[in-house]
Specification:
This protein has about 290 residues and is of the alpha/beta class. Helices cover about 35% and strands about 20% of the residues. The chain contains 11 helices and 13 strands. A 5-stranded mixed beta sheet has the order 10-9-11-8-12, with helices on both faces. The protein has a 3-stranded parallel beta sheet with strand order 5-1-6. Strands 2-3-4 form a 3-stranded antiparallel beta sheet. The radius of gyration is 18 Å and the shape is globular. The N terminus is likely disordered.
Length: about 290
Amino acid sequence: MKKKLLGALLGITMAAGLLAGCGQAKDNGGNTGGAAAKARTLSEIKEAGTIKIGVFSDKNPFGYVDSNGKIQGYDVYLAKRLAKDLLGSEDKVEFVYVEAASRVEYLKSAKVDVILANFTVTDERKEQVDFALPYMKVALGVVSPDAALINDVSQLKDKTLIVVKGTTAETYFSENHPEIKLLKFDEYQEAYDALLDGRGDAFSTDNTEVLAWALQNKGFTVGIESIGNLDTIAPAVQKGNKELLDWINSEIETLGKEQFFHKDFEETLKPVYGDEIDPENLVVEGGQV
């Protein structure tokens, strides 16, 4: 799990990253059967005095509830800043907990104004939601027990790989490695519990997350640090909500001038990663990859 190795692996070109690998499944990370509802405009959000932002509650260190019952993480740090700059206080954000497979539906049904839940940008997802400028880059990783370490995808043949429904990991392995049996869960905590108790041989999700988890759980190592594409993570709004989208894009560009996302990294990710990950291999400032 060396920093320079991750840097080299994540240094693949975005052009290559936008090919087939991490393309999203037909549900595009969200149940599409929810009833459509009109999203609130920027003006309506200001009038209401709160902004509803969908985040994960179990994806440490990006969106999670800590031991004191408080929501924390890289995505949450950004959500609070959006609320502060839009409504005058970070307390004006109403956090709505989402699962990977519910993110699109929560936007379509207007249950949230914005999704900030480690949402990977894919072409198929773009057909259903509007993505703002990116604030992070990521690929897939695979974590497994040290006693039976998986360090090459060929070792997963006829084995069980744990994935979370509605994620790019589910899509990538379904489309590219049908020889691998997938054990699917709705929530990240369920997936990690399954790995811990041996129901699967390995677990795949964003490499940034499995690297953090392995550092916090002895006996597990990310044997495959990067597989699939180099993708980007971005905020998402309901399709056609241009006023809110434009404001978020402008905000991300402005935040880039103050190196906001490097500060976010230092506050929320550095305590977990230490020196294992160079922020330049993860952080995107001003929406410029």
